[in-house]
Specification:
This protein is 57% helix and 12% strand. The protein is α/β, with parallel strands linked by helices.
């Protein structure tokens, strides 16, 4: 299982440079060929950044219909633990939350373009790296 960081969805929905790579990866998750998790925090951040009702609806329908994707809701206690990780690992709240959930769920890697994850004990993979390992 992989944890998908916010920037993977944004790359696709904002049609950035690596949108095709992200689309291929997310299609593997959507079909159930890959198992992944996304935090509810990421979903809200994406909704706020998209700030377009039609795009948000498309995004949420894709999340809802994705066979291999689970949405993880953090509790207040978990978010307090995240605040402690921020200081310990020198991360902002968003990255600390992703790291916390990744550790808790024992994911194989965090799928992200964010190099802040490179200094942690969970591997960071870009979508193309994960796709290359598929049979």
């Amino acid at each position: 299982m992989f944890l998908i960081d916010t920037n993977i969805f944004l790359e696709l929905f904002l049609n950035r440079e690596k949108a095709d790579e992200c689309e291929s990866f997310l299609e593997e998750v959507s079909s159930g060929d890959l198992e992944a998790v996304v935090t509810r925090f990421s979903i809200h951040a994406i909704e706020a950044i998209l700030n377009n009702p039609k795009l948000i609806l498309i995004f949420l329908r894709n999340i809802e219909n994705s066979l291999g994707l689970t949405v993880y809701d953090t509790s207040m206690d978990e978010e307090m633990a995240v605040s402690m990780i921020m200081e310990e690992k020198k991360l902002d709240f968003d990255d600390a939350l992703q790291y916390y959930v990744a550790k808790k769920l024992g994911v194989e890697a965090i799928v992200s373009f964010d190099k802040h994850f490179d200094k942690l004990d969970i591997p960071r993979r870009e979508p193309k790296e994960v796709i290359r390992t598929l049979p």
